[in-house]
Amino acid sequence: MTTTDDTAASAASPAAPPTGWWRRNAGWLAGTAVLGALALWLPYRDALRQYRLLNPSIAVAANPRDWTAFAGARWKLVAAESLPARDPRLRGPLRKDAEVVVLRYEVIPDSGTKTVDLDSCRGAIVDAQGRRWDTGGAALPRLSGPRLPETCGSGYDDAFKQVLAVPGRPFAFQHAFVLPRGQRLGDLRARIEMKNSQQVGGRYLEFAL
What we know:
Keywords: Membrane, Transmembrane, Transmembrane helix. The chain crosses the membrane at residues 26-44. The protein is an alpha+beta fold. It has one domain (58-208): Immunoglobulin-like (Sandwich). It has 4 helices and 11 strands; from the N terminus they run H-H-H-E-E-E-E-H-E-E-E-E-E-E-E. The termini are far apart.
């Protein structure tokens, strides 16, 4: 026997669409599914692209003995040196549990590469544990020796005269870092990253020290 509650529930439940309804509307349903997927994917793709512009995540291994092409130029790590706290080349205070790592590079711009694009570079060092140190910072003391630019396309020499990277000619610059004392250079990797550059597409240049 059908109760009053069962009858009310049946009346409140919508009837399932007939089988032919799904066939007639298959194209519309498929299109809706595609549009829904695109509505989710496109913002994610754009957000991922923007994130990679600011946080490059694809390594380009540099040739340790020769020039490596990257971001409209050729790059070479010329020297890597560690300076302990009492090194006479440090012209300012440095904590006893720290050391300074100095990396000297040369870059040769390709024809048409702009200085402003090279100067968007930033330097970093990472270790096997994934720790990262950026170049410069308040803890870095002043260094003695020849003055080299700290950016990759322009700077000033010992006479405080501006020097610019010129296509076809090596341009020398250096990056300096404050790291915890006792780091083995062979365990570290140096990076050249181009901030907010569409040209490199989320890549960075990596050097073994």
